[in-house]
Structures are given as structure tokens and as C-alpha cells.
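Take a record.
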Amino acid sequence: MTIELHRISEIAKRNVKVQNLAHFIDEASLKQIHRRMDGKKAKGIDKVSKDEYAKNLEENIEQLVLRMKRQAYQPQPTRRVYIDKPGSKKKRPLGISCYEDKLVENRVAEILSVIYEPKFYEFSYGFRPEKNCHQAVRKLIECIRKNVGYVVEADIRSFFDTIDHEWMIQFLEHDIADRKFIDLIKKMLKADVLDGGELLEHEVGSPQGSAASPIFANIYLHYVLDLWFTIKISKECRGDAYIIRYCDDFVCCFQYKEDAEKFYKELPKRFTKFGLELAEEKTRILEFGRFAEKDRAARSEGKPETFDFLGFTFYCSMDTKKRFFRVKVISCRKKTTAKLKKLNLWLKEHRDWSVKDIITRFNQSLLGHYHYYGVTDNFESIAKFRFMIVNLLFKWLNRRSERKSYTWDAFRDGLLKTFPIANPKIYVSLIANNA
């Protein structure tokens, strides 16, 4: 952290409004961000790349800062593209900013991060320094192992597309007194969107893909959800209550059913006030925890239901010797199936590549899969994923010509020994120290 950002952070920790932020977006900070930028990222509507911008870097940065000082800076429209949404036929919209706007977005995100990091709660894990998905999963397991009897699984419908700009600005003004900086964020939020050749006004939302969107999301839900849950909901509960949030994905845990039901009833009202909507088909209360299996068996209701969070399916179980209760996870079937379909399509379209290049590409995908899903209790699932990958390779490498290229024995004992497929491995422990 630079001296300037450290100074902002110290002011924010004193719970006073921070002032004079706009002047921290200067030539030195923007050049530093430029050096860190990935030159391979997609281009905005101006089609300017990092290398092209760098040809006149000094002049470009100087002119950008001058426009910002005169408050003449106006972000260009973002280019909207649609990508596949894993496990769904729907497409996820992404906003791709112009290169110069990306520099500003990154600097604004840096400044907001040092202001709000001291304010955010520990149970918020998404897009924060030194926090990640595995920590969120581990903490959720730790919470459930306590006295939790019920879980509320919730989903916000199109969260990034429905962030209310007026509320967003009110939240920022609660902590920031610099009018120029606030006005800059207003311009960023309201930048037009180019969607399939049509220019659209941007009255609500913050495009996914913008460097500032994750911090905007965390600030918005800090005030809408986190503070409300901490100050009101948990204080009014008869028993224990916990929340784990990763950006717009969250799960709430309760000791008693009546507390879970009260929260479940009040949550839609709270969200409606701030322009958000729950996806009712993905929001529910389920009985879950150390007593759920016993209580459900007594009522002849079968095993406890499962729920999904951050790509994992959570289920009630026991340790290997059946001595004590354990919450375990497995790779979410919907996510895994979607990934296999994507790899199958890629292999179909690229089966004319050399075998070495195909195996290299698939090993990269496998290692990424192992690093994320290679967690405690999930070895069998990632081993099965590898098995499916091997079957895909056998299928499509045998369709490179009219004649069948390999028997299974020749494929396994010949090709796979020459070009080995990465083996599954557990990389992350989800067992808490006191488990």
C-alpha cells in the first residue's frame, strides 16, 4: 500500500468521512496501474489495447488527468458481451470498458478498498485482500458444526444489473465527503452500454467486468445485508445465527427454525427497499446440521437435503469412523456437467491439433479444476472428473480420421504414458484446527 493509500485507510478507521480523494488519481498512480494491466484483455469500443495506449503513454495519462481535474472526464460506453452461465442456458452479460476507463476504474477501486476494508465484516469473503472462496467454504462448515439446525439458501436475481444508483451514492456519501470523487463514481455508474450496436442508457446496475464492480457490490451489500443481519437479525434471534457471504452469494445459518423463518420472511422486504429481488426458485429454508439427520429420521422424512454454495454441494455426514458429525462437500454436479460440455465442444472443434497440444490444454484445465475442487472429502469427485476427461479424449482422438486410431489398451498404455494426464490431488484442507 502506498503512503497516500495508507493515510486514507487510517482516516477511514476513525469512522469519519474521508475527504480530498480525487487528487489521489494522479499521473503516477495511473502509470503504476498501467504497468500492472494485462495486455491480453478484451478491448473496449475504441479498440485500443495496452500496447497502443503505451505508444503515447506520457501524453495520454497527462491529458486524462487534466480532463479529470477540469471534471471534463466522461467514461466511454462499455461494450456488452454475453458469456455462458455454468449450469444454465442463460447468458451472463459482461461490460468491457475502454482501456483508459479501465485505468480509472482500477484506481477508484483501490481507493474505495482502503476506505471500506476496515468497515467490512469478517464474514464477507468476496474480492477482498487475503480472502478467498475456500476460506468462505471452510468458515461455513465451521459455523454449521456448532448449533446450527437450519440453513437459508438465497439467491439475488441479476444482482449486478439491479444495483440502485441512488442508494449506491447514499452509501458512499455516508463515508466520503469529496464531491468530485462522488461525481466521478456517478459518471462511472451511468456510463452508457453498447449492446449489439444499440446504445443503451445505464440507469441501474454496475456491469460485471468493470474493475470497480466488485467493490461497488461489496459496499452495497455491506449496507443492505451485512449491517442489517449483524445489528438487527442476529440480535433478535433466540439462538445462534451466522452469515457467510461471497460477493452476491450468501448462506445464513440458524439454530432454531423460528429464527430462520422470521429471517426468510423479512429478507424479501429488505431487498425490495433497495431495488433487489430474490430468485424465489433458488431461495429456501432447509433443515441441516448435526441434529437434522436424527430428527428427520424420527419423522420418517429421509436424509437432510443438500445445498450449493460457491460451486460445492454441502451435505450432512460423519467422520470415517462414524464417531462424530461432519459437514462435507462435493463438486456441484451442475457446474461439473457444464464444464465437461464446454470441454467436449472444444475438443470436437480442435481435434485436429497435435496430441501433445491437446493434452497440454486439457492438463491446464484439469489442474485448474484440481486447485479449486481438490478439497477435503472431494477426491472421488475430482478423480471421476479426470476419468470423464480421459473418455472424452479417447472418443475424439478416435474421430480424427475415418479409421479408428486407438484401441483402449493402446490409448491407455501407449499414448497416455507418452503424454500423461494430470492426476487428481487434494490441495486445500477444509478441516478447522479444532475439528
